[in-house]
Design brief:
Keywords: ATP-binding, Nucleotide-binding. By secondary structure, this protein is an all-alpha fold. The protein has a single domain, classed as Fic-like fold (Orthogonal Bundle). Helix 3 crosses helix 4, helix 3 crosses helix 6 and helix 9 crosses helix 12.
Length: 317
């Protein structure tokens, strides 16, 4: 287990963290069997945390809106409320989004406000779709699910001068970079994505046969692999975190909220950038070393998340 984690990031024994993580999951499972009140409390908690997941992920990308409007819109989406595609200045949400953009010194005209709102609503819709397909219906993560989720995430959100239909839900047809780091050539993306899905299926099959699966390592590995393929023209960061949480939720029953505050965002971005540099280095073999910091970061968040749920049950007892 230890080989898949970075002790310098954790500053705790990963075996001990795993024991705590799994104990909290067991306690939560027992609590759900004891009371319908616990189930209701968990439903409310999950809805709130999923909304916070969207907020944090958007903040990493300087997208969306403030925490209050994000929670409001996301909860509406997760509860199945049908929202209008557009709003105007008479809508209370319009004012809240405008204030957020002004406070961030971002463009705050009508189109920017509509875009900010779509970045929240479509992110929530993509999360709902991914969780429904992978976690509720139990489907394997696939090219189709990933492409559909990306299409939902980027619906009606143009990319600079590129209209959204030209990049939404389809693998990129041009090369992209982040700072000085250049991602793989666009011609290699389809094969890389096929290899990624094949490797994921193989890892899951092997772990299932052995009766041992580390959901944190699995989720972190494929979050890392996906974002370093960078298959889409935009939205790869948000998609990689949706993949991470879909796999984590499916195989552990929990998920994590990344980027809730500036310090957490900085730590996550530092880890992601360092992993990309390692991945792109010719002298660095691809392996656990490239995602072990992310696995450590994820494990700590997962343990803390499950502890909060267990405490929720204790408060309601």
């Amino acid at each position: 287990m230890g080989d898949a984690y970075d002790y310098n990031i954790l500053q705790e024994n990963p075996k001990q963290l795993h024991q705590e993580f799994r104990k909290y999951i067991s306690d939560i499972s027992d609590g759900l069997k004891q009371s319908d009140d616990n189930k209701n409390a968990l439903d409310e908690y999950i809805t709130d945390e999923l909304a916070r997941m969207v907020y944090g992920s958007n903040m990493i990308e300087v997208a969306g809106g403030g925490v209050d409007i994000t929670l409001k819109l996301c909860k509406d989406v997760f509860r199945g409320k049908e929202l209008p595609e557009e709003i105007n200045e008479r809508d209370e949400d319009y004012h809240d989004l405008k204030i957020h953009l002004l406070n961030k010194n971002l463009p705050s005209g009508h189109e920017a406000i509509l875009r900010s709102r779509r970045e929240i609503v479509q992110h929530a819709e993509a999360a709902r779709y991914m969780i429904d397909q992978v976690c509720i219906k139990g489907k394997d993560l696939s090219h189709k699910i990933i492409s559909e989720a990306h299409g939902i995430l980027t619906y009606k959100i143009d990319l600079g001068d590129t209209p959204w239909p030209y990049y939404s839900g389809v693998y990129r047809t041009w090369n992209v970079r982040c700072g000085s780091h250049v991602f793989m050539d666009e011609s290699k993306v389809p094969a890389a994505m096929r290899d990624m899905i094949d490797e994921l299926d193989s890892d899951i099959k092997k772990a299932t046969e052995e009766g041992q699966i580390d959901p944190v390592v699995l989720a972190s590995k494929y979050c890392h692999k996906f974002v370093n393929i960078h298959p889409f023209a935009d939205g790869n960061g948000r998609m990689c975190r949706l993949i991470l949480n879909a796999l984590l939720l499916k195989y552990s029953g929990g998920f994590i909220c990344i980027g809730q505050d500036g310090q957490d965002r900085q730590e996550y971005l530092r880890i992601a950038v360092a992993a990309s540099v390692e991945e792109g280095s010719q002298s660095q073999e691809t392996g656990a070393a490239n995602y072990k910091q992310l696995a450590s970061f994820t494990l700590r968040h997962a343990r803390d998340s499950m502890r909060k749920v267990r405490q929720l049950f204790k408060r309601d007892a």
